[in-house]
Amino acid sequence: MFSGISINEFREKFKTEQDCLQYILDKKLSGGYSCPRCQSDQYGKGREWHYLRCKKCGYDASTTAGTMFHKCKLGLLKAFEMAFRVSVRKKGMSSCELAKEFDCQQRSAWLWKAKIQEAMKSSGRHTLSGDVEVDEFLVGGFSAGEPGRTHGSKDLVVLAIEKVRDKKGKVTIGRAYCRVVDDASSDSLKKIFEEHIAPQASVKTDGWCGYWPLGKDWNITKEKSNKGAGFPILHIHIMNIKGWLRGVHHRCETHRLQKYLDEYHFRFNRRGFLNSIFDKLITKMTQAEPVSYKMIKCELNT
């Protein structure tokens, strides 16, 4: 497993395309081999060293087949380093920065980063427990004449954070998750509870009526927000998200906002494990189903 956050450490480990292929191969085989065609667990040497041939049906597949690196046109070495930069840097990198840094077209950098963001989506296996706070916020700010939860052309996002105490006894955020919602109804708000909040958690919200029906399945208490004063840590996190979107990416389309929020929280929730964050990303990209450029471009045009 590669461990480190220094670019020098990265370049010492990954010097050639073969180094990247070997790393992907090791990740694929760490959970055992399964033939994509017949699901056999027996394999032998394929046409090249990085190919695996099924002993049962003879299907010969490359290392990158069935991963997000399938048909990567940037080259594996460049793709690996892009993924490394996006994962280990505190604020990541925009596609414009990546294009300049790696001397490629901005569209190519954007499409590859879109693949990285797909892999950064939460698995949903690690739910928030203990003391949890939930609130909504708007990306883009409030529109004149649209008070309260009416968001008009802005994007409404619901945020859940887990409050913990550090070694010095200071209350801070453990993990956090965001979800873009259509409105502030209980049906829309319930989704983040189902995906990311354990039933035994103690959840604190403001007095919004959309949370009332959820009290049947979660332990929910209410506290006045007082324009954020009642939830100081949560609202600091909201300001950090907004500052990151404005400062690094400048703008984000509604249909891509969830992907950017997933990226932000992939890094945030692993901020204490930066040495292994790149390895985790490569593992997820290796285990995930391939996402073609055509699929991402179709999403861009919808």
Description of the structure:
With 302 residues, the protein is α/β, with parallel strands linked by helices. Helix content is 41%, strand content 16%. It has 10 helices and 8 strands. It has a 5-stranded mixed sheet, sandwiched between helices. A 3-stranded antiparallel sheet has the order 1-2-3, with no helix packed on it. A hairpin with a 5-residue loop joins strand 1 and strand 2. Helix 3 crosses helix 9 and helix 5 crosses helix 8. The radius of gyration is 22 Å and the shape is globular. The chain starts with 6 loop residues before the first helix and ends with a helix. The mean pLDDT is 91.
Provide a brief overview of the structure.
This protein has 302 residues and is α/β, with parallel strands linked by helices. It contains ten helices and eight strands. The strands form two sheets. A five-stranded mixed β-sheet has the order 6-5-4-7-8, sandwiched between helices. A three-stranded antiparallel β-sheet has the order 1-2-3, with no helix packed on it.
